[in-house]
Amino acid sequence: MALNLPGPAACARLREWGAEVVKVEPPAGDPFAAFCPGWYWQLHAGMEVHRADLKSAEGLERMHGWLQRADVLVTAQRPSALDRLGLRGAALHARHPRLNHAQLTGHREPLAEEPGHDLTYLAEWDLVAPPAMPPTLFADMAGAERLVSAVLALVHARERTGTGTSLTVALADAAEWLAMPREHGLTHRGALLGGGHAGYNLYETRDGWIALAALEPHFAGRVAGALALPDMTHENLKAAFAREPSSHWTAWSREHDIPLVALSSS
Predict the structure, then answer these.
(1) Which is the most buried residue in 16, 55, 126, 175, by most CB within 10 A?
(2) What is the mean pLDDT of residues 216-230?
(3) Whole-structure pTM value
(4) How confident is the model over 227-247, as pLDDT tens digits?
(5) What backbone torsions phi and psi does residue 104 show, to the nearest 5 degrees?
């Protein structure tokens, strides 16, 4: 029943691994199909998609028919909405005792009813740098991976107990998890992985930029040796990389087994 991105993305991953996925959408469909139709159809390829009005007795009975043969119900609705439909907690378990429920929310209780989206979850954990918008949907995609893990854990637990149970995956928790390197001081500006280490940095070339990730001593030594640098400093690397185009440095990195990638100009 999960609409928009994280739920379908997680179920698409599970389908790749052999799961049978039945998607139940409201009569108007999933809004994501209008936001990003190409990706919507890519994520839903191989899924069985139905529309049903779960606010009607007939639609709800159709839903229970699908649940009767399901291993896991994946939802992304507010808990109050699921409670009104009898699709959560004791009411769901009483009718489908072997059914597992993976519940995707924005926040955990007692904040599970609060509205939010990827941008707000990232902002809560200082992962947004105005005025630039985040380059991708970090919390949604990390939350999708957490949802995959939750589904697998639920199925495994039922194999041992014979009884279905539930797990909640909060997108705000996924954002908190992504923020941990920053919280521990690794990625702040000037910190070890925030530009402080000369071998783990971005450098301008003659026609663009490269990302160098020579963090370990053996990689750093390899860079210094291949460039004949007296010292592995930001200034020495900046001067060296500015002499040639990015294509030269990507070929050079393959030759010397150094982690380096040219940045796209887009």
Answers:
(1) 175
(2) 95
(3) 0.91
(4) 999 999 999 999 999 999 999
(5) -90, 125
Count the domains in the chain. 2
- In this structure, is residue 27 part of a structural domain? yes
User: Which pLDDT score is estimated for 58?
Assistant: 97
Residue position matching structure tokens 């924005």: 106
- Residue 242 lies in domain: 192-262
Other C-beta atoms closer than 10 Å to the C-beta of 196 total: 15
**What is the per-residue pLDDT for 266?**
55
Q: In terms of domains, do 169 and 210 share one?
A: no
Tell me how far apart the alpha carbons of residues 111 and 108 are, in angstroms, rounded to a whole number. Answer: 6
CA distance 135 to 128: 10
Strands (E), the chain: 22-25, 48-51, 72-75, 100-105, 166-170, 200-204, 209-213, 260-262
**Cβ atoms of residues 198 and 234 within 8 Å:** yes
Instruction: Tell me the C-alpha distance between 72 and 66, whole Å.
Output: 11
Q: What is the three-class DSSP state of 1?
A: coil
Same domain, 133 and 17: yes
Give the residues across from 50 on adjacent strands.
Answer: 24
193 φ, ψ to 5°?
Answer: -105, 20
Q: Give CA–CA dist 13/44, Å, rounded.
A: 10
